Amino acid sequence: MLPTETVTVEGTVETIDLARRHVNLKTADGKFVGLDVPKSAKRFGELKVGDKVKATYNNQVIVQMKKPGEPAVNKAYAAKGPGTGEGAKPGGSVAGHRIITATITEIDKDASSITFEGPNKWKYTRRVVDPKVFDQVKVGDRVDIVWNTDVTVSVN
User: Fold this and answer.
1) Three state DSSP letters for 66-119
2) Cα separation of 130 and 128, whole Å?
3) What are phi and psi of 48, to 5 degrees?
4) Residue 77 · residue 98 · CB < 8 Å
5) Is the separation of the CB atoms in 103 and 59 below 8 Å?
6) Residues ≥6 apart with Cβ < 8 Å to 97
7) pTM value?
8) Residues ≥6 apart with Cβ < 8 Å to 96
């Protein structure tokens, strides 16, 4: 199990693509961040250019070694959380659970990180806290990666 990683993004809505369900935010330091909005966000159409948005993601990741010959997994589950935008402004919370099978493609002991490749050439690199992990894995090993994620979004 890896330590929970919390990421907060705050910015002003610059562009909205309703068809692709995508929003570009401009942060206080002038950078742009793209956010994909899930279909479960029922009030997405109420978002306006100029709205101030804050999104906080909490990711808990568990990596388990895959047994040889065990079939690959690629599943996602989502559940609405409390306060899914019933107020004056869109916003709310949602929790999700995703499991995928990935292959270790790179181990960088100097940077204390491991890179994985999963379905559709998806890549993920994560810092390793416990250096003993490097003695237990090698490039080519298959693993199941389990994410438990909750996202809270507020619009001001």
Assistant:
1) CCCCCCCCEEEEEEECCCCCCCCCCEEEEEEEEEEEEEEEEEECCCCEEEEECH
2) 6
3) -125, 150
4) yes
5) no
6) 76, 77, 78, 146, 147, 148, 149
7) 0.65
8) 76, 77, 78, 79, 147, 148, 149, 150, 151
- Nearest CA to 76 out of 21, 127, 119 is that of 119
Question: Residue 12 is which amino acid?
Answer: T
DSSP-based three-state secondary structure for 44: helix
What number of residues does the chain have?
Answer: 156
| pLDDT per residue as tens, the chain (156 positions) | 777 889 899 999 999 999 988 899 999 999 998 887 777 777 888 999 999 999 888 888 888 999 999 999 999 887 655 545 555 677 777 788 889 999 999 999 999 999 999 998 889 888 888 899 999 999 999 999 998 888 888 888
* 106 φψ region: left (φ > 0), alpha (ψ -120 to 50), beta (else): beta
- Element at 26 (helix H, strand E): strand 22-26
One-character DSSP codes across 117-136: E-GGG-EEEEE-S-GGGGGT
Across the strands, what pairs with 57?
7, 151
